[in-house]
Every structure is written in C-alpha cells, then in structure tokens.
Design goal:
eight-stranded antiparallel β-sheet; four-stranded antiparallel β-sheet
Length: 292
C-alpha cells in the first residue's frame, strides 16, 4: 500500500475482480494508493478517484477493506487456492488476525480484465481535505487531554505521548473524519469515573476548557511541526503510527489513516465542545482551514 506515504497515483496489476451484491464490481490490485474504509474502526472515509485499464476509465466510487481466509478449509472460489473474498462488516475477523489475507477493494461500475495493468488516481482534493481533518483530530485529542489533566484524581492511569492522562483513548466511543475536520464522541460514565476522572462541573467549565484547547492548537499550528506516518511494512495490516514533532515532544499515535506533512499546511484548527443534557457524553467538533 502506498497511501501512508501520501501517494495519490500508481500503476499495478489487477489480481482479482468480483461482482458485488449491491451492484458493480470490486477490483483488487497488487498495490494501490487508495485508502480504504477500515471495517473495525471506520473513522476516515474511503478515497475515491479513477481506475483505468486499457482505454476504459471509470470512477472508483468507494474503497473497502476486504479479507480472504487462507487457513485450510476455506471455501475455494477463485484460482490460487484462496477462500471467498469478504468485505467490510461481513468480515468475521479483526484486521491482522492470523489466517487471513487483507486487501484493498476498489468499487467500480463495470468489470475490468483480470491480470491487466491498471492506472490508479486518487481524488487529490478530497484526500487532502480528509488528511487535514485527521491530522487536526489527533491534535485536538492531545490538546483535550492536556486541558482535562487536572480532573484526574488517581495515579497509574494511561497517559498520552505528552504525559497527560489519555482521556481521548479511555473515553472515546466514536470518531468520524470529515473533509477539513472531525466529530469525536466521548462517554463519561461509571467506568471513566472509576478510573479517576472527575466529571462534576465539566459542563459548566466547557467555555474555559475550549479556550485552553484552542489556544494550544493555535500554538502548535504556528510551530509548523513536521508530521509523518511511520510505516514498518507495506502490508495493509502493518501497525502504522502518526508522528508529530510538537514543541513539547515528538508524539506517536497508532493510526491507519492519511495525514498532512506539516502543521503549517493549516491556517487554523478550532474545536467546539458540547455536553449532553445529562452530562454523560461529550462531543468535540473540530474544524480546520487550509493555509493560503
């Protein structure tokens, strides 16, 4: 996979073509710059773009994670002794489980010839907007952790790369990256309180907490810190890391998405916090603006 390094174009051999139950075809290539939707943590939407084989060019309207069971006893459905190709929520295993081959499946309208070379082009504008949103999402999480650090009354809780209690990792229930931003939902329930988080007065204190977070984000963006995705191997299942050289420290966060190269590519990152009426849920809406 070449998308972790920021690639948006490539050429590769078509290794499988399968009809999809909802219409269209799933195309697998030996290598791809397309980022697929992760079926286990679907935070960043899939890339879209173009796929060209010979004189046929068509839209890649979706890009999914696929898996083929390779253990003995898998159902034989295509050459090479592989099992049936399963997509997204139909995959019974978690990404990286043994006995499975993990693939990127490009969704197109018309069948393409198996074994031919394909030209692959990602919608670069959409990719950049999603990368900006994902980078901003990680920054928001770190700034949120810092702003809530004083609310932890127990030692020994998990900490982030800056040494603050990792509220983001401990409380998050969903995260959705959108072009130029993200929406993250946190659960503030009994489990979090037992770990030592003080929820009393949180709703009333959100204006001050929000100001502190946005101040931290302004400082980090101004520092134009370098960002990159650390890739130990080219497999889709490789444990990739987001690395950012913040003024305080170099921070790494496990991440399978795509990102900008520097924080200076953003002119601003802003968060808005909202608590549920009962105070048991916190929503963080993060937005970005690209540098001119």
């Amino acid at each position: 996979m070449t998308f972790p390094a920021g690639a948006v174009t490539g050429r590769s051999r078509v290794t499988a073509v399968v009809p999809l139950s909802g219409g269209g075809f799933g195309v697998v290539t030996a290598e791809t710059p397309f980022h697929p939707l992760d079926h286990t943590w679907p935070d960043q939407p899939a890339d879209t773009g173009l796929l060209r084989v010979d004189d046929m060019e068509q839209r890649v309207v979706d890009c999914m994670t696929g898996a083929v069971e390779t253990r003995p006893g898998a159902v034989e459905t295509r050459p090479g002794g592989a099992g049936s190709l399963l997509l997204g929520p139909d995959i019974p295993a978690r990404r990286g489980d043994e006995g499975w081959e993990w693939l990127v499946v490009h969704v197109v309208e018309r069948r393409v010839p198996d074994g031919e070379e394909a030209g692959l082009t990602v919608d670069e504008g959409r990719r950049r907007a999603l990368s900006a949103g994902h980078t901003a999402c990680h920054l928001m999480a770190l700034a949120l952790n810092a702003a809530l650090a004083s609310r932890w009354r127990k030692d020994g809780v998990r900490v982030d790369g800056l040494g603050h209690p990792d509220f983001d990792a401990l409380a998050i229930t969903s995260s959705r990256i959108v072009p130029g931003g993200s929406r993250d939902v946190y659960r503030i329930g009994k489990s979090l309180r037992k770990k030592g988080f003080t929820a009393e007065g949180l709703t009333a204190g959100l204006p001050e907490i929000t100001d502190e977070i946005n101040g931290t984000l302004r400082r980090w963006v101004a520092a134009d810190a370098a960002v990159r995705v650390v890739v130990p191997s080219p497999e889709l299942t490789a444990r990739r890391l987001w690395r950012c050289e913040l003024p305080e420290a170099v921070v790494e966060i496990p991440c399978g998405g795509t990102h900008l190269r520097r924080l200076g590519e953003l002119s601003s990152v802003t968060v808005r916090l909202e608590a549920s009426p009962g105070g048991d849920e916190l929503v963080a809406e993060t937005t970005t603006e690209a540098a001119g």
